[in-house]
Amino acid sequence: MGKRDSRKQPKITQEIGDTVVPKLSQFKRDGQVYFSFCKFDETNKWGANETSETLNVWDFGTKIKSFESMTWKVLRSNRTFSFYPYADLPTECQNALRKIKMDTFDNLWSLHIDGRRRLWGVRVDGFFLALWYDPDHNVYQTEKN
């Protein structure tokens, strides 16, 4: 019988709430952006209203693919990507995060798709875990300068 390899194997996944996602070490550590929809909340009120303008899958996929060709630093520098501290979020938003068990993160991130459309989520290592699609910029409204 062959001898069993007793060397410690690296852990290739990590748990985020009740979801297992790949660890960044399985991917390049060059600051590249990766997207995951494993925690996407299709029950939220922001993207579910029928009067909202939505993206077709082709346009959305193309946009996400273009973001994956960038680094986090580039996304932040061109104001495409910004964060909002959990404590500053509206109560309704905090409650929605609690409902999907994603309220343990310090910040909620907003990714500007185009016009008023946003994709909201959290950052875990190099991943953006998408939580909500916000076609009308209603999750966290800001005043124009």
Runs in which pLDDT lies below 50 for 5 or more consecutive residues are none
User: How far apart are the first and last residues' alpha carbons, in Å?
Assistant: 72 Å
Summed up, the helix count is 3
Report the helical percentage: 10-25%
State the secondary-structure class: alpha+beta
Rg on CA atoms, Å: 17 Å
Strands, count: 7
Walk me through what this model shows.
- The protein contains three helices and seven strands.
- The chain is an alpha+beta fold.
- The model has no long low-confidence stretch (mean pLDDT 77).
Task: Please describe the structure with a list of short key phrases separated by commas or semicolons.
five-stranded mixed β-sheet, alpha+beta, two-stranded antiparallel sheet, 145 residues, 3 helices, 28% strand, single chain
Break the fold down into its secondary structure elements and pairings.
Blueprint: E1 13-16, E2 19-22, E3 34-36, H1 57-68, H2 72-77, E4 81-85, H3 91-99, E5 107-114, E6 117-124, E7 127-134
